[in-house]
Write a structure and sequence with these properties.
The complex is a heterodimer of chains A (about 120) and B (about 120). In chain A, about 0% of the residues lie in helices and about 50% in strands. Chain A is mostly beta strands and about 120 residues long. Chain B has one domain: Immunoglobulins (Immunoglobulin-like), CATH 2.60.40. Chain B is built from no helices and twelve strands. Chain B is globular, with a radius of gyration of 14 Å. The chains are: A mainly beta (about 120), B mainly beta (about 120).
Chain lengths: ~120, ~120
């Protein structure tokens, strides 16, 4: 596609509910990143894929967070048993190569609100 | 660990005037990239300008330019002839240079308002 597409744009979840957030990167982009952006803060790194391989998941805040990219294109970020502190905007980004030296292309994010 | 600091939570400027947003960073490494991203209410992070640390020349993109002071670890963004569409959050970001490096660190952002 022309840009990075994320869905849903907004998600309201009851505490304890599982959610799945989708990211469709730019076609042909090798690298895919997930970031979490709390209100009034800058994005914080969650995880990184190169093709289907998850090379870095050091930013995932707990084992309730899980990400996958099984075919090296679309990625899903899953949050199990959501908590209020999970409320944030989740941003997905992609880049063409294995380095981000040209910068990333970001999607518009999913705003998750846990009530 | 690398950190990025934006000391101005909010700034405002009159349309057509010039404004400078500050950013400092902390690293012991020598090879890295610096970026400024714009985030309008649509939430999409849009790359404004980038700088490679080994280049001494300051990057320029139309009305946007940077003042990169490597020794001082400073990377400010200057917006000339400000336009109403420049109203947004602006984030400074840092990333080490290297294949497979993926850890882009962001500052907390500066909210810029351009007033008519």
């Amino acid at each position: 596609g022309a840009g990075v597409s994320q869905s849903p744009r907004y998600k309201v979840a009851k505490r304890g509910q599982d959610v799945a957030l989708r990211c469709d990167p730019i076609s042909g982009h090798v690298s895919l990143f997930w970031y979490q952006q709390a209100l009034g803060q800058g994005p914080e790194f969650l995880t990184y894929f190169q093709n289907e391989a998850q090379l870095d998941k050091s930013g995932l805040p707990s084992d309730r967070f899980f990400a996958e990219r099984p075919e090296g294109s679309v990625s899903t970020l899953k949050i199990q048993r959501t908590q209020q502190e999970d409320s944030a905007v989740y941003l997905c980004a992609s880049s063409l190569g294995g380095t981000g030296r040209l910068g990333y292309t970001f999607g518009s994010g999913t705003r998750l609100t846990v009530v | 660990a690398q950190t990025v600091t934006q000391s101005q939570p909010e700034m405002s400027v009159q349309e057509a005037e010039t404004v400078t947003l500050s950013c400092t960073y902390d690293t012991s490494e020598n090879n890295y990239y610096l970026f400024w991203y714009k985030q309008p209410p649509s939430r999409q992070m849009i790359l404004v300008i980038r700088q490679e640390a080994y280049k001494q020349q300051n990057a320029t993109e139309n009305r946007f330019s940077v003042n990169f002071q490597k020794a001082a670890k400073s990377f400010s963004l200057k917006i000339s002839d400000s336009q109403l569409g420049d109203t947004a959050m602006y984030f400074c970001a840092f990333m080490l240079r290297g294949y497979n490096n993926n850890d882009m660190r962001f500052g907390a952002g500066t909210r810029l308002t351009v007033k008519p």
